[in-house]
Write a structure and sequence with these properties.
heterodimer, A: alpha/beta, TIM Barrel, B: alpha/beta, Rossmann fold, 2 domains, six-stranded mixed sheet, 15 helices, globular
């Protein structure tokens, strides 16, 4: 295992989780694909997420070959790419709006766009733009610890790794030791997408992970209703909702009040957390 | 071209993380990491197990039809007027291409691992047909993902897979070709690995696929080396040529001659319609270092790291990345890469058909195209070994269409 890291100032992500924890509630972490339905629309949608009660935002970078995503987010990525979205554009968006939003942003991306830019350049630009954390879906700690994390760490950007239902104890420990901010537990072994029922064993599984992880554990994949948010919030420090919001954007992309609808939906989803 | 030097045995196997130098690796979503680790372990256990090897060898001999002949293409040699040309006849294998070597090996492995369902991607349809065949033989369920564009180009192979009891799942995302079929197969596997094995069809993907697929195809080179000694009186050719999509048939052939400084290994990529990005699948001339489908390798991509579309008349070469070991061996000065355009491949197809009575797969026709350029420049006592990786029956319609244009 890697040697203990130097202490560094608490990140905005860590602060957001600790604020929630003081209020004895879970953090709400919505996901959107940046540039879906258009780059122009995205800032308003991000504001809607914050107004609806987001504690941390996961902002997806569209990629041509999203192997871990289901149809909904695939279509969202496709729309974003067709509208000219790219890692450069997303970094520009964050740079212009991060401060105003006042909520930490985790860049949710496949590794290739980062790799193409060059890891050092990316890390510098991400830090300068105000990116708080980076999660590369296809960069497990096995590769990430060596390739990307040192550059991010040097600039105070958090690295977040996934833990899956299939992760062995050894892999859980590896992801936990490598992550800063929080770890992201994917509640099902599947691509992203909404599910009608959450797995009954979820509570047990999240507890299995929490026992081995000192950081907050956020749970995602398949969560789409306020009831599910409530259920997951009982066991997790953070609740991630992705596909359900991307679907809302898809279905209302042409509506002038898209942002208002999104805000309303996020408000419904966060209601159980406000108690 | 760098100086070719002998390769150490250590350099021929990837490290524990599946890395060939800085290429390869295991860039996969966390959900697949434990299943991939399990696969590596199972493969390493079985490849050393004698009963597994015996079973595989038995099937390769009696079911698949190994060894395949090495054939001296006398009329083609005369026609080109240079080096003597030998064809390794993988086209004569059951199902019509080299793909069955790997498909059968992996399906047998899956069965040993207790999996009951097989998934695969396919471009030209040859790997899909081979996998569907192996699954039928061993009594496992089979789903083959195939891009809709490829299904149009290769509709006969679609029906063949269905006849073999496989479900062909159309993929309408992206370019609707091989890369999108691989995306979809990975998505399936993320949810199904408990009972399902993903038979990846080429020497790319996350560890252990590149080394496993190479190993199952290394029989091609091993046989060719023996046969050359007997037939041509030399244990090694002056030049060995193979087409490279992902690069499995090339790796199978080349593996027997790596580290031999007198053997020039030439990989032929799809030059498509021309050198503009999007018009070809020539990664060594138009690609940059990237990470796709689990491996760091050369990828055809734009500056933002988005993978771009490719084009080739041959569906099996129509892929934006290449096996990581090829990139490593190229860097080591072991393999030279070139490309043949659609037009050159079609001409190669006609030439081999007319001079030797052999219809090559359009993929293999790219290798033939390279031979037509190279053989006349060589001496009559020199030997070119070509991997005729598949037969062209599946491509007759495509050639007909192309010629009509």
């Amino acid at each position: 295992m890697s040697p203990r890291r130097k202490r560094r100032p608490r990140s905005a992500i860590a602060a957001a989780f600790s604020r929630c924890s003081k209020r004895k509630r879970s953090a709400f972490i919505p996901f959107l694909v940046a540039g879906d339905p258009s780059l122009e629309a995205t800032p308003d949608l991000l504001r809607a997420l914050v107004a609806g009660g987001a504690d941390v935002i996961e902002l997806g970078v569209a990629f041509s070959d999203p192997i871990a995503d289901g149809p909904t987010i695939q279509r969202g990525s496709h729309r974003a790419l067709a509208g000219g979205s790219s890692l450069s554009a997303v970094l520009g968006l964050i740079e212009r709006h991060r401060e105003e939003l006042g909520v930490p942003i985790v860049l949710f991306t496949y590794y290739n766009p980062v790799h193409a830019r060059g890891v050092e350049t990316f890390a510098a630009q991400a830090a300068d733009s105000g990116v708080d954390g980076v999660l590369c879906v296809d960069l497990p700690p096995d590769e990430g610890l060596r390739e990307l994390q040192p550059a991010l760490e040097e600039r105070g950007v958090d690295s977040i790794y996934l833990i899956a239902a299939t992760s062995t104890r050894e892999r859980i420990d590896r992801a936990a030791a490598a992550s800063n901010g929080f770890v992201y537990y994917t509640a099902r072994s599947d691509v992203t997408g909404e599910r009608e029922d959450l797995i009954p064993t979820l509570a047990r599984e999240v507890k299995r992970v929490r026992r081995r992880v000192r950081l907050p554990v956020a749970v995602g994949f398949g969560i789409s209703t306020p009831q599910q948010v409530e259920e997951v919030a009982k066991v997790a420090h953070g609740v991630v909702v992705g596909s359900a919001l991307v679907r809302l954007v898809e279905e209302n992309g042409a509506e002038p009040d898209l942002a208002a609808r999104l805000e309303r939906r996020v408000g419904e989803l966060t209601a159980p957390l406000r108690g | 071209m760098k100086v070719r030097k002998p390769l150490s045995a250590a350099a021929m196997e990837p490290d524990e993380g599946g890395r060939y130098g800085v290429y390869g690796g295991r860039y996969a979503p966390e959900t697949l990491m434990a299943p991939l680790e399990e696969l590596s372990r199972a493969y390493d256990r079985l490849r050393r197990k004698r009963t597994f090897q015996r079973r595989l060898n038995h099937l390769l001999e009696h079911y698949v039809g190994r060894p395949t002949p090495l054939y001296f293409a006398e009329r083609l040699t005369e026609h080109l007027g240079g080096a003597r040309i030998y064809l390794k006849r993988e086209d004569l294998l059951h199902t019509g291409a080299h793909k069955i070597n790997n498909a059968l090996g992996q399906v047998l492995l899956a069965k040993e691992m207790g999996k009951t369902r097989i998934i695969a991607e396919t471009g030209a349809g040859q790997h899909g047909v081979a996998t569907a065949t192996a699954a039928a033989l061993l009594g496992l369920d089979c789903v083959v993902y195939m891009g809709e564009e490829d299904m149009r180009r290769q509709r006969l192979n679609v029906y063949r897979m269905q006849l073999l009891g496989a479900e062909v799942a159309p993929v309408d995302a992206g370019s609707q070709t091989l890369k999108d079929a691989i995306n979809e197969a990975f998505r399936d596997w993320v949810a199904s690995f408990a009972d399902t094995h993903y038979v990846l069809g080429t020497v790319t993907g996350p560890e252990p696929y590149p080394r496993m697929v190479r190993r199952f195809h290394s029989v091609i080179g091993a046989e060719a080396r023996r046969q050359l000694r007997r037939l041509a009186g030399t244990p090694a050719p002056d030049v060995a040529v193979a087409c490279v999509g992902g690069g499995s048939n090339a790796m199978g052939l080349f593996s027997a001659f790596l580290g031999q400084p007198d053997v020039l290994l030439v990989g032929v990529e799809a030059g498509g319609r021309g050198p503009e990005l999007g018009d070809h699948a020539a990664r060594f001339s138009g690609g940059t270092l990237g990470v796709l489908h689990g491996a760091r390798t050369l990828v055809l991509q734009d500056e933002e790291g988005q993978v771009v579309g490719t084009h080739s008349v041959s569906a099996g070469l129509d892929y934006p990345a290449v096996g990581p070991e090829h990139v490593f061996l190229h860097e080591q000065g072991q393999i030279e890469f070139t490309s043949a355009t659609d037009q050159e491949a079609i001409e190669g197809f006609h030439l081999l058909s007319a001079t030797e009575g052999i219809l090559p797969a359009l993929e293999s026709a790219h290798a033939i195209a390279e031979v037509t350029r190279r053989a006349p420049e060589m001496e009559p006592d020199q030997v070119i070994l070509v991997n005729l990786s598949g037969r062209g029956d599946k491509d007759v319609e495509s050639v007909l269409e192309y010629d009509a244009k």
